[in-house]
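Re: the 297-residue chain
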Amino acid sequence: MKLPYAKTQSKLDLPDLELILALYRGRTLAGAAERLQVDTSTVFRSIKRIEKDLGELLFERSRQGYAATELGIALAGYAERIESQLEQAREAALDTDTTPSGTLRITTTDSVMHSVLLPAMPKFTERYPQIELELIASNALANLSHRDADIAIRATKTPPEHLVGVRLGRLEAAVYASKAYLAAHRHIPDYRDMDWIALDATLPDHPSQRWRRQHHPKVIPRYRMNSVLSVAGAVIHGMGVGVVPLAVLRDHPLVEIVDGPIAELETELWALAHPDTRHLQRMKVMFEFLRNALDLG
């Protein structure tokens, strides 16, 4: 979109690209300001100046924030590549034989975080003490292009083609109940008639939800939770039966499987990243570590 003033000779420089990238990732003035460690008025004035210099609109403004135009996305892409190459140059300057360092921001679901990732992290931090970890448990899908995270660990059989990564193994799930609950409900021979614990309306398309609706359409859950880890906790404490990944409850002494593993719920676990970051040393060592350290089959 053309702006209502004449385009002048572009003075676009590296700080300008850094600001464009920060606003593209942050999506609001406050988000960009936090990334750049400046105030919001500085971001506002700077983006207005850059757009005036270019004679082009880089971001559409709305109540939801700032959405990059086609040119804004293109310039943010150039800035990402420069950022990645600068990181690689810094690593080369420090000699690739030195210990990997820097910050890695990893996001995954709460169940994968607690049952798969956290148990493996002490060995990683012992091996690479100069790498700082930021671990985020969230059911929301991180936007790796916006650098919401460096690595997203996702359960999927079809990882996005625009990302790079490594397959970490299989994830299986089954219907579980606590031994105490089953003992107290011997008079109910069919688990489908027991108290069901399920995910709530915030996760309507979760595989466990689709499987239950398809195979047990008459089941109405008595309890609803907003996370898989909460479902597992409710099962352990004897509230009823629920679908839980094997990785979460495997070998737990208080529970047992009443149906499964369920073939339709089997999926794969992938560690994924943006292509521009795959050459960074700290990314390489994390991918290699996860590939070898996790025993998921």
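The chain has ten helices and twelve strands.
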